Amino acid sequence: MKRIALLTSGGDCPGMNAAIRSVVRTALSLNLEVYGIEQGYKGLIENKLIKMDSKSVANIIQRGGTILRSARSETFKTVEGQQMAVNVLKENKIDGLIVIGGDGSLTGAKKLYDDFKINVVGLPGSIDNDIYGTDMAIGVDTALNTILKCIDTINDTASSHDRTFLIEVMGRNCGYLALMSAIAGGAEAVMIPEVAYDIEGIIKKIKKRYEEGKTRSVIVVAEGVGSAYDFGKVFGMIGGFDTRITVLGHIQRGGSPTVFDRILATRLGTAAVEALMEGKSGVMMGLQKTRIEAVPFDEVLGNKKLIDKKLLEIAEVLSR
Ligand code: ADP
Ligand code: F6P
User: Fold this and answer.
1) Per-residue DSSP letters for 72-127?
2) CATH for 141-254, among 3.40.190.10, 2.60.120.200, 3.40.50.460, 3.90.550.10?
3) Which of 129, 179, 265, 274 is the most exposed place for a label (fewest CB within 10 A)?
4) 128 noted as active-site residue
């Protein structure tokens, strides 16, 4: 292994830069040449490779987003597109590729490994925390902290006006961000795609809480359940609550990564380079308990990450 390349793909997340820095500096310390590919698979197809040195990753560990930029590429989803990407890797004599991204990006990485025998190691980077094989993906902790700040802030104004707030959070089809932020933010209810919701039950609970003297209610809605605006109308009409909606949107994807994300991304970045050096490929490096483990792409992509039922129970009991 002489020359490796790395790219960031799909939705960006805080901590991608810390991972890039870690990959580059670990690789350099092992006398490898490292190339950064701009704009994910799109940039790979377009041969957008830049040689990285230690200085090129200076002063980025604290920055959200990705200095390599990210993109989504429909062309890469086709066999022709994948062949173009492979040709670029071969022309540039790249011996190993590190892909940082969500399950879509890892699916692309698996194609390169399975169908074209490219040495690929993946790193989980997505705020959604929907990637099997890692307890936490890069960016999740920062996104949760951002959401928490917003819930706490909204709580202040909600209490002053005796209002019911629906706060819509990201997560695609996964309710992790919603569930964890609802628990940590002391929300009255949470609606996630993994569990059937009971609007009448939530309304009953909120009414009871108001009768007991509570001056506000917060319901966290995962985007995968539907629009908080639509649910808001129902809560207003049936419950008779003074209801307001906040859709947090892309604010959840940016910002300076937390300590947790910086350390996780750094550990994963180092592990990815070491894995390539040890001849490992077709794997994602993931956090399992406190250890970094290599998990085969087949296992990562062949399984669905489930919501912890105990956490659901805790959310329910503590919001009664
Ligand atoms: P994420 O990686 O955050 O889940 P996407 O699902 O948008 O984001 O995937 C990012 C990119 O990964 C896509 O634009 C595409 O280039 C590539 N990709 C996604 N799914 C596939 C697939 N089934 N086959 C090949 N490449 C894929
Ligand atoms: O996968 C990360 C994510 O932020 C999801 O939570 C969200 O559904 C999606 O990406 C938004 O994608 P876009 O950046 O294309 O708006």
Assistant:
1) --SGGGSHHHHHHHHHHHHHTT--EEEEEE-HHHHHHHHHHHHHH---EEEEEB-T
2) 3.40.50.460
3) 274
4) yes
Of 12, 128, 130, 261, which is the active-site residue?
A: 128
Q: For a substitution probing ligand 1, which of 107, 123, 297 has the most ligand atoms within 8 Å of its CB?
A: 107
pTM greater than 0.85 (yes/no): yes
Ordered per-residue pLDDT tens for the chain, 320 residues: 999 999 999 999 999 999 999 999 999 999 999 999 999 999 999 999 999 999 999 999 999 999 999 999 999 999 999 999 999 999 999 999 999 999 999 999 999 999 999 999 999 999 999 999 999 999 999 999 999 999 999 999 999 999 999 999 999 999 999 999 999 999 999 999 999 999 999 999 999 999 999 889 999 999 999 999 999 999 999 999 999 999 999 999 999 999 999 999 999 999 999 999 999 999 999 999 999 999 999 999 999 999 999 999 999 999 88
